[in-house]
């Protein structure tokens, strides 16, 4: 039977049956509690919180931009910038955690491959259809990249890389990918054609001439691989409390570095400190296309702090009703992510509502409609259909493979 897990990038539930004892505050935060399905509730809550930032950004695109409120649209997009790196960070953390905590590595790998393939095929089709009302032509529609594409590739590569590498190796590999992409963004100026397409797909370009919305694979997958190392200690009950504090500290330090650099540079910075515009772009936390190192440090750091904070809140038993609502969104995050595109990019665009000071009511109604559908989806357990059935296909393929008789010598 297909997995009933329902989040955007984690196709299986966390392993159940591990102790959830609560150490004293002096030794660190209490261990995260698990839901009845064996999931770590704080992770689902973090996904749900990240999805709220998606709502804000896409409401800005679907309503404010259409109504001519450009400043509010820009503000909504700025607030929503935390969503993509947070989803990628959580996806990496969970992948690293599960491949250490679970024994059935082959089954886990197949389910991650299935989720990645779903995002790149069926999931992409649904996302593309939702963008039809806001896209000028079919050509431009097909030249758009989505965060689900990047997550799909990351899940496939992660499922193949994590079982055969150590945490340190993945950190070094991920940091190397981030460094290479940053350097290539400054130095690689390819001509039009396949070289330009490869640059935009892999490294990213601030002057994209082929892709209309560019989420390059190398920096995003590099960030994902680094985050897988942060998830491994969560599988060890003895190391988990310190791992949560380490995650919060690392995220805070990353964001603080960016804030310090911005304070140092100001409008121009000390003479000679920044010598050209490409370097300044790499130090800009709002440079998402292509993503700058500062963008990953600031918003990725904020995502890690959000995740660590909700792990602590879950373990302490605080904000029960808020956590339940966020966890429901997190457990249905893939479905919610697909549905909200239709709410904001299809329905709102077609309605073409004029700007109104009562816009908060529109926003609340849009969220309520999305969450109602998510609750029904969750209640009926419909996430079992979010699959391309790769595990079943692989099992049938293996059964049809001829068996080599090793008793006979090869000729």
> What is the rounded distance between the termini?
42 Å
Instruction: Encode the helix/strand succession as letters.
Output: HHHHHHHHHHHHHHHHH
Residue share in β-strands:
under 5%
Extract low-pLDDT stretches. 1-6, 14-29
Q: Any idea what the shape is?
A: globular
Largest sheet data:
none
Q: What's the number of extended β-strand segments?
A: 0
Number of helices: 17
Radius of gyration: 22 Å
Q: What is the SS-derived class?
A: mainly alpha
Mean pLDDT: 86
Indicate the percent of residues in helices.
Answer: 55-70%
Topology record:
Layout: H1 41-67, H2 70-80, H3 83-101, H4 105-120, H5 122-130, H6 138-142, H7 147-161, H8 167-187, H9 194-203, H10 217-231, H11 240-265, H12 277-282, H13 293-316, H14 320-331, H15 333-351, H16 359-379, H17 390-400
Helix pairs in contact: 1-2, 1-3, 1-13, 1-14, 1-15, 3-7, 3-10, 3-13, 4-5, 4-7, 5-15, 7-10, 8-10, 11-13, 15-16
Please tell me about this protein's structure:
The structure is a single chain. With 411 residues, this protein is mainly alpha-helical. Helix content is 65%, strand content 0%. It has 17 helices and no strands. The protein has helices at residues 41-67, 70-80, 83-101, 105-120, 122-130, 138-142, 147-161, 167-187, 194-203, 217-231, 240-265, 277-282, 293-316, 320-331, 333-351, 359-379, 390-400. Helix 7 crosses helix 10 (217-231), helix 8 (167-187) runs antiparallel to helix 10 and helix 11 (240-265) packs antiparallel against helix 13 (293-316). The longest helix is centred in the N-terminal third of the chain and has 27 residues, at 41-67. The radius of gyration is 22 Å and the shape is globular. Residues 1-6 and 14-29 have low confidence and may be disordered.
């Amino acid at each position: 039977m297909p997995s009933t897990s329902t989040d955007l990038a984690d196709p299986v539930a966390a392993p159940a049956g591990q102790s959830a004892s609560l150490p004293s505050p002096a030794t660190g935060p209490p261990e995260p509690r698990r839901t009845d399905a064996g999931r770590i509730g704080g992770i689902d809550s973090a996904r749900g919180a990240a999805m709220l930032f998606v709502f804000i950004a896409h409401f800005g695109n679907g309503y404010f931009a259409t109504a001519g409120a450009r400043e509010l649209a820009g503000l909504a997009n700025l607030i929503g910038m935390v969503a993509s790196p947070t989803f990628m960070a959580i996806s990496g953390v969970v992948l690293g955690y599960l491949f250490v905590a679970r024994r059935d590595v082959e089954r886990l790998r197949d389910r991650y491959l299935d989720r990645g393939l779903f995002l790149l095929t069926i999931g992409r089709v649904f996302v593309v259809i939702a963008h039809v009302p806001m896209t000028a032509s079919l050509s431009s529609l097909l030249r758009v990249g989505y965060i689900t594409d990047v997550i799909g590739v990351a899940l496939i590569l992660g499922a193949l890389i994590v079982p055969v590498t150590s945490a340190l190796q993945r950190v070094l590999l991920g940091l190397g990918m981030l460094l290479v992409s940053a350097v290539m963004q400054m130095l690689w100026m390819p001509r039009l054609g396949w070289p330009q397409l490869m640059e935009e797909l892999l490294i990213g370009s601030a002057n994209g001439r082929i892709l209309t919305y560019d989420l390059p694979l190398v920096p995003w997958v590099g960030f994902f691989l680094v985050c897988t190392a942060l998830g491994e200690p969560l599988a060890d009950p003895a190391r988990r409390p310190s791992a949560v504090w380490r995650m919060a500290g690392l995220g805070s330090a990353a964001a603080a570095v960016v804030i310090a650099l911005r304070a140092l540079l100001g409008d121009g910075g000390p003479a000679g400190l920044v010598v050209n515009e490409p370097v300044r772009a790499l130090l800009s936390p709002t440079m998402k296309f292509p993503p700058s190192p500062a963008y990953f440090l600031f918003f990725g750091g904020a995502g890690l702090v959000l995740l660590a904070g909700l792990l602590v809140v879950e373990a302490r038993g605080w904000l029960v009703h808020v956590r339940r609502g966020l966890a429901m969104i997190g457990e249905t995050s893939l479905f919610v992510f697909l549905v909200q595109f239709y709410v904001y990019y299809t329905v709102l665009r077609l309605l073409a509502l004029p700007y109104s000071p009562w816009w908060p009511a529109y926003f609340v109604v849009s969220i309520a409609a999305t969450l109602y559908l998510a609750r029904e989806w969750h209640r009926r357990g419909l996430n079992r259909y979010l699959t391309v059935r790769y595990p079943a296909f692989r099992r049938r393929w293996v059964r049809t493979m001829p068996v080599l008789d090793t008793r006979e010598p090869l000729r």
